[in-house]
Amino acid sequence: MSNATMYDLSLAQTVNLIVVGGHERTVYAQGHMGNGKTSMLGMCHAALPKHIPCYFDCTTKDLGDVTVPDLIHMDDGSGFVRYLTNEELGIHNNKPIILLIDEYGKANAAVKNALLRLMLERQLGSYKLHPDSKVFVTSNLGAEGVGDMLPAHACDRVTLVNIRKSTSEEWIAWGVNHDVDISVLGFVREFPQILQSFEDVKDPTDNPYIFHPREKRTKFVTPRGLEAASDWLKKRDLLDSTTMTAALVGSIGFRGAMDLMTFVTMADQIPTRQEIQDSPQSAKVPVSSAAVCMVVYRALATTDNTNINSWMDYLSRLDVEAQGVFVNGVRAKDYDSKRQQVVMSNKKFTDWAIANHHLFTTDKV
């Protein structure tokens, strides 16, 4: 591992960097396409709920979209020009904001130059940001070849960090909390290479799932594409098989879609939530470990006061590994706090925890 990749950050680490120091120094976060860079605005807002989130998309802007002149006339007949700022920059709020300057690397030169003072001094023309405001910038990796360029004089004004791709465990944990279809979660668990970085793949034929700058692939697997695939799968009852497969191919590429369809078939064969709730001691237990994990992921995403007791009865029939996946998922710091409270306050769960305390590990789903 090179020194460069050794210090690549996760999305969560990057957000923490912004939250801690983004009011003084602008974090310029560059990373892989479709890996959730823009979602960091919402993550920062969750950490700083009193700040106003503001999104500025550089790819749609020209110089006149950053500041525009306003003629000020004085009583003595003289006057001057004052430049007004774009509403999207949020400066007019006069309150703490979280400003995401998105796709800076693709902006035209005039827009890049116009934003330099804002990125360094928190000021644009005669307007200053509230001193508690956080500013960060996102862009794609230059090696992806999608037009991102960071001039040296701009780079010197920011703190440049690379965001690594999410691991399968990280993405599954995110997917559990964001209603991702269990077929997709199962697919990610069994094929972790779909989230591999092209920087770790010398020969593009070694990983046919992902984007690689050395081989032209129209579609490929990204976290964004997996979320799109999940959205289509939730409508599979309304689509024929050919149309469904075409939508998946158009979301994550041919190879990814073909393998994902295996998990779609598997998901259609596992016990329904209602079957587990009505008959936890007799509802079928899937044979394959992948299908068992899909049942667990669904439980993590849907367990509430109405079904926790029946789920705990069913969980006891699963193997130890599956039980550990569920428990570590509940204990994960990013797990939905309301569901976490429901599970951890349940008597059957606490009894299970006492009896199986030796199974608890520091690993997180």
Characterize the structure shown.
With 365 residues, this protein is of the alpha/beta class. It has 2 domains: 3-163, Rossmann fold, CATH 3.40.50.300; 168-359, no CATH class. The protein has helices at 3-6, 11-21, 40-47, 109-121, 152-155, 168-177, 182-190, 223-233, 241-252, 254-267, 273-278, 289-302, 308-315, 320-331, 337-344, 347-355, and strands at 27-31, 52-57, 67-73, 79-85, 97-102, 123-124, 127-128, 134-140, 159-163. It has a 5-stranded parallel β-sheet, covered by helices on one side. The protein has a two-stranded antiparallel ribbon with strand order 3-4. Strands 6-7 form a two-stranded antiparallel sheet. A hairpin with a 5-residue loop joins strand 3 (67-73) and strand 4 (79-85). The protein is elongated, with a radius of gyration of 24 Å. The relative contact order is 0.10. The model has no long low-confidence stretch (mean pLDDT 93).
